[in-house]
Design goal:
Layout (H helix, E strand, L loop, with lengths): L2 H34 L2 E7 L14 E7 L11 H4 L3 E2 L14 E2 L13 E9 L10 E8 L9 E18 L6 E10 H13 E8 L13 E2 L4
Antiparallel strand pairs: 1-2, 3-4, 5-8, 6-7, 6-9, 7-8, 7-10
Length: 225
């Protein structure tokens, strides 16, 4: 057999063997897929979520796993878990299961940590931006004495909103108002209860989701600004 003919024979044999190998791999993959089932979406925590947090879609991600290994009760769509509240701390990457979450509308003691309270108040603020799961700063404006102008102070920083509903407009200023429930300490709850009596206005300022900076609490500005 000539060298050229031998080369053609070897090339043809290589093609045949390659086709057989590819067919074998494809058959094995098909058999494995039949055993494991198709890939299905499973909702997981994108980051660590503390206990009592109202879950937002931005807190969630999707991973695809074989149907055989997907938890039977797992959420398949982030929208199904958004608005619910975590019962305990959830580590990032954990599958979101109904057993880990509670009704997000509840703002009772079941979702509170030791030493925490729920403070209910009506304050000036944009209802569309003050939402459950968000965080706010609280401004308190005091009445002035003997006709003098009052002062405004930053009373609380980075407070979690447990629930929020529009509460109409202020009759005098026309400012939009919102009825909110805030997660606070005992001392803060007492202060806010008193502020609703002595303050001329209480205002909540929405914070950006990633803004957790503090340090300005107690800042006070008078009429001389």
């Amino acid at each position: 057999m000539s060298r050229r003919r031998r080369a053609f024979v070897l090339a043809g044999l290589a093609l045949v063997l390659g086709a057989l190998a590819a067919s074998d791999v494809s058959s094995r993959e098909a058999a494995l897929e039949r055993r494991l089932g198709p890939a299905v979406p499973v909702v997981v925590a994108r980051a660590d979520l503390p206990a009592g947090r109202l879950v937002r879609i931005s807190d969630l991600a999707i991973r695809h796993v074989p149907a055989r290994y997907a938890p039977a009760a797992a959420f398949a769509d982030p929208a199904q878990a958004a608005g619910l509240r975590t019962k305990a701390e959830i580590v990032h990457g954990t599958d979101l299961l109904p057993a880990l979450l509670a009704d997000g509308e509840s703002a009772d003691g079941a979702s509170l940590r030791p030493g925490e309270r729920v403070a209910d108040l009506v304050a000036a603020g944009p209802p569309k931006l003050v939402t459950p799961g968000g965080r706010v700063d609280v401004l308190v404006t005091r009445q002035g004495r003997d006709g003098e102008s009052g002062s405004t102070s930053l009373a609380l920083e980075d407070v979690e909103v447990l629930s929020a509903v529009p509460a109409g407009d202020d009759g005098e200023s026309g400012a939009r108002k919102v009825a909110v429930s805030l997660r606070v300490t005992v001392r803060q709850a007492v202060y806010l209860a008193a502020a609703q009596s002595f303050a001329r206005e209480i205002r909540v300022l929405p914070r950006a989701a990633a803004d957790r900076r503090r340090g300005a609490q107690g800042l006070r500005v008078g009429s001389g600004l």
